[in-house]
TrEMBL record:
UniProt-listed Gene3D superfamilies: 3.30.70.100
Listed name of the protein: ABM domain-containing protein
GO MF annotation list: oxidoreductase activity
UniProt GO cellular component terms: cytosol
Span of the signal peptide: none
Biological source species: Sinorhizobium fredii (strain NBRC 101917 / NGR234)
One Pfam family matching this protein: ABM
Domain spans labelled ABM: 9-98
Amino acid sequence: MTRPQTDGYVVVVEFLVRGDLLNQFREAMMENAATSLRDEPGCSVFDVCQDSEQPERIHLYEVYGSRADFDFHLKSAHFLSFNEASQPWVLEKKVQTFERIAAPSGGH
């Protein structure tokens, strides 16, 4: 079986955030996402989603050009700063990675 050609490196992160610190977390996460999209050429998608029934559950969907682009993100000053500041706000964190094999035509 031939391995499919990939169209990016996808990172899906799910956070369970302390309710009393949810606003701080959201603000910091939105800044992290905006900075990633602005300053990292390898980052093409950084969606921040919130569960409408369980607001403390925050879900990220990130797309990078390659694993190397994601590794660059993990070493960036803005990510390291966010990661350190947000650790006390997070009750659970689950990270999954995928190779994207298809994307809608004409978009990310």
